[in-house]
Amino acid sequence: RTMAAILERSFIEICGFERETVPRFRDVTINPGASAPPGGVKYPDSAGGFSYEDSGKLLSVTSNRFIHWSTSGDTIQLVEQSLDVNLLNNAIRLKILQCPLLPGGVHIHETLNNVIILIVTSQSVHRLVLPHPTNMYHSELVTELQVQSVFTDVRRASVQDAAHSYMLPPGQSPITSAAWLSPHGHAHFALAPPSGGITVVTLPPHDQQGSVSVLELKQSSVIQRLAGWMPTAIRGEQSPSDLAVSLSAWSLDDDTFLFTMCQDLKLRVWSYKEQQCVLVTDLLDFVPAGREEMRRSQGQHRLRLCFSPSTGLCVAVHLTAPSNSQFCVLQLVASDNSRYSLEHISTHFSTQETLVDFVLTATEIWGLWVDEDNQTVMKYTNFEHNVAAMWNQVFAQPAPEEEVHIGPDQDPRIYRRGTERILDLTWDSLKKEVTLTVENELQSSVTQFEFTQEDYRVLQVDFWSKFYACCLQYQEALSTPLALHVNQATAMVCVLKKGFVSFLLPCFAVDHLYLSSEEHLFSEEDTPISEDPELGSDVVQLVQCVRLVGECVQGDMACEMDRALDMLLSPERATEQVLENLLANGSDNLIEDINNQLQEVRNPLAAMTALLRELDLETDMEMSPERTVPPTGQSLSVRMSLSQLYGSSVSVSVVCQALCQTAMSRALLCRDILILQHLYLRLGDNVSVCVYINLQHLSVLKLSDSPAVLPMLNPQTVVELFYQNVARKLIVAQLFGQRGAEASQTPLHWPQLISSVVTLLWPTNPSFLFPECLMGNCQYTQLQEYVRLIGPWCQANVGSCRFVLGQAYLASGEGQKVKSHLHNIFLPRTHTHTKDSVCVSLEYTDCVYIGLPELVINLATLAISEAGTDQRRQAALWTRIFKHHLDLGHNREAYEALTQNPEHSSQLDCLRQLVVVLCERAQLHDLVQFPYVNLHEEVVSIIESRARAVDLMTHNYYELLYAFHINRHNYRKAGTVMFEYSMRLGREVRTLRGLQKQVDCFLAALNCLRLIRPEYAWIVQPSSRAAVSRPGQTSPGKLAWGCCCVVATVSRQIEILELKDVEKEYVLARCRLTLGQHEPACAAIAGGASAVEMVALLVQSGLFDSAILLCHTFSLPLTPIFEGLTFKCMKLQYGGEQSQNEAWNWLAANQLPSLITTKESRCVLDLRISYTLRKECVCALMDILFALQCDR
């Protein structure tokens, strides 16, 4: 069952304004060179609309897209809008200097490549050529949320080009006009001059060269000239009775017919092809009575056309008379001899309000009037099957209250959003500016220096009431209706007003019953709630009683009722108070009228039950998960189009305003039914229905008035936010998920959209999507208000409501409320151990973590006792406890929570986080001292992986691991760690600092190995070909140095390093450091040099002691040292003063006796050499001399 029956006999008006996005009009001026018209010709404001041909096709770029315009003086405003996407640069203001726009003088047509706008003014005609939307985008599939409008490049449309305009001769300002495009691209303007007849001005195609032609159609002859106009005297006499007051054109077959409604009440049809009048029909023949009055009437008669494949071309004429205005619908019929006739279909009499505009569709007439009080009246009727010629109702948007009730505890400066915005200001800026202006006005009017609080409040109320009255005047002016626009392809009906656009939506049965006037509720046939005629009649009588109650509950009583609901007071008590006030205010006649009306209700209990069933959404459709996703078989283009359907800011505003209107009207209906119920009880009837539940439900939906602060697309209420982010996608998927959206057109689904959104918002809906949306978008204030309103009585989603409320408290910084709220939840559950309590406990501790870690720890500890043996939930709770203890710096407690975690993977995650955080905090003592029972290998693996993955000079994970092993007296592993550290330093950090660090690491490794027994003083080193393989990770450490416990994939080739091997590496590192300290530029070279290469480098730098030590350590020959020393001696022997100075540098780097401290002669130098030469060097020298002697 759908939410409610939808009546096709009534519609309701919904304002489609965009509150925060006022159209930014770009001004374009055309100067045709005209002078001001004589006599100051002034036309009334007008408006109109145009819908694209493919606007009803889902896969079209122009889906749900239309253009509307309004004219005032010589200015026309054009706006393109879409219900699916937001259009950029979509508004222009075109000003044609000194040329007032003719009412109805704007005609828009589309071709395959262009959108062409034809404009008629009092002195000229113009053509504006724009690109068609299908040619504006790179792909036929539009995927953006915002796209460019056809008006984006309007300044490039050659609006000033003479080929696109034509000046009319002076004194020939047309009364009415029509325009059309020929198949060849010619633009034809049919004008009705004040002298009678029809003049057709033709502009050549916009992409071809040509001249303007003028054709005059009249009854006596046809005269055509290529330029200029025929003087009036030459044309012969024209009867003023054939003056066209309304004109329309329609292309049929290969001809274009001009339909003219003339002053003599005759309908003349002209053939443009034959250039003659082919049909004349006297409309008085279709007037049943009052023909003379109609003939004498000088009213504004109007003419409209409509073509459909089923009915052909139909003509609707509105004949205006003081007392019997009527619509006459005719059908154009072709005979066998290619002649045409008009057959009468129906006549519909209209009310006596002033007609503003009407539209003819394939089956209906839509009318727009203004009554004597300047209020908008809208009606429509079916001219095919409406035998009684009854007009169906359209409930106009109610005018704002003339006075706003301000309670004694309310500030008169409280703002409520209206229906439109006319200033380009943000809501907050506007409030500040208005408040400052009104307060300054109040202060300037005060003449006394002292006021009581009551007197000042009276002044405040008075001045704010004046400001409110001014706002109402502006709103009334902007609400002036100008035209109707109906799109048959999408069933969209718009009312074009001076300041905004409103939409007409089908009315639900309940709203129809409650809003209809008495003359429209005359039988049970208007009650689709029940198929039983007697029950339908009872429902009608009951609704009339409810409306009588509603007429009396106004002003203070209505405010008190609303306040009672807002304060969560008992609706029944508030109802009793309202009823007492009604009886005390002398409403005896009302009670008597209601009592008399109730006597007509045969079964009041059944009638009230049937009415409430339509109000209750708990039995409505549910959004099942399998229906919320479009079928996977649909193409990408269909899915993309569906993702944008009804997604523009215009659609969002219309849907949410309709939802607000629905909630308000039904809340009032529930209120009045509840009062009527108590009146039943007071009168003695045994009727008891729980109406207040529905009243409370609907009062929650009034949250749509709460503002939301968000950027993109500017949703201004929480309902708009919910519709944009959640509801629209689900609803559109449901509407189109069960049918092939590609094959057929897609009419608007306003009722389904609205009813589905209401269903999703209904507090008892199990989906809980609305509160989740509020929480996800940080609307915590509105979320708290929502939970407060439904908390006392809604029994659905209780745990979820408590969860989101706690989250809202926490995000708002209300810590004490969070603590009290959560303890109230958990304490009653400690002995239940239900599944729901565990789930709620887990959810709370999972998300409530911002700002109150101590509270989370306490709650999680309490929840662990409820989790029972469920290891997954216990692991999640212990993880939360560990995290918050660690954040608070409680390292010991965090470690204990880690050890209590029953899930090994969670333990490892927490352990890894503990190591990283304590290292970042430099709290290494705690990290090393923890016992790590059953986690020792995991800790080592984590630290090793971190050490090999980070930069060596900025992190000290190797030193941490060294301390970790030393603390546990595992010296061999400690030495292994430092040996790996030193080897990586030698490869990766070849700087003086790195060399110094490498020497220190070797010393630490040697110390560790010397502390253990010699048979165990060895370490395992992977060979140079054993590279570490860690998929997906590349670290600075290319080799994994360490013992066999390393968690990495290595090859099986290993090397055993004993103490003497480590000592060799130390000596080599020490020599590298010595060379780097002596010559810093050689540090990078020395870092990667082998022992043999280091000997050469040391000898070259004069570091003979280090070279000899290196040769002894690695068992290398001393020949390179002697050769280098001999070379230096020879260089010193034959060198000059500079060579001797350089010698002191390399000699000072070696160990020399202290007696040589000054420069001496050659013998002293020989003495230095003798001290320098050692026994090994002399032996090497003798070996060389002996070899030379043998060669001789």
UniProtKB/TrEMBL annotation:
<feature type="domain" description="NUP160 helical">
    <location>
        <begin position="532"/>
        <end position="688"/>
    </location>
</feature>
<keyword id="KW-0813">Transport</keyword>
<dbReference type="InterPro" id="IPR056535">
    <property type="entry name" value="TPR_NUP160_M"/>
</dbReference>
<dbReference type="Pfam" id="PF11715">
    <property type="entry name" value="Beta-prop_Nup120_160"/>
</dbReference>
<protein>
    <recommendedName>
        <fullName>Nucleoporin 160</fullName>
    </recommendedName>
</protein>
<dbReference type="Pfam" id="PF23354">
    <property type="entry name" value="TPR_NUP160_120_M"/>
</dbReference>
<dbReference type="InterPro" id="IPR021717">
    <property type="entry name" value="Nucleoporin_Nup160"/>
</dbReference>
<feature type="domain" description="Nucleoporin Nup120/160 beta-propeller">
    <location>
        <begin position="65"/>
        <end position="412"/>
    </location>
</feature>
<dbReference type="InterPro" id="IPR056536">
    <property type="entry name" value="TPR_NUP160_C"/>
</dbReference>
<dbReference type="GO" id="GO:0005643">
    <property type="term" value="C:nuclear pore"/>
</dbReference>
<feature type="domain" description="Nucleoporin Nup120/160 beta-propeller">
    <location>
        <begin position="414"/>
        <end position="510"/>
    </location>
</feature>
<dbReference type="InterPro" id="IPR059141">
    <property type="entry name" value="Beta-prop_Nup120_160"/>
</dbReference>
<dbReference type="Pfam" id="PF23345">
    <property type="entry name" value="NUP160_helical"/>
</dbReference>
<keyword id="KW-0539">Nucleus</keyword>
<feature type="domain" description="NUP160 C-terminal TPR">
    <location>
        <begin position="1058"/>
        <end position="1162"/>
    </location>
</feature>
<dbReference type="InterPro" id="IPR056547">
    <property type="entry name" value="NUP160_helical"/>
</dbReference>
<dbReference type="Pfam" id="PF23347">
    <property type="entry name" value="TPR_Nup160_C"/>
</dbReference>
<dbReference type="GO" id="GO:0017056">
    <property type="term" value="F:structural constituent of nuclear pore"/>
</dbReference>
<feature type="domain" description="NUP160 middle TPR">
    <location>
        <begin position="762"/>
        <end position="1011"/>
    </location>
</feature>
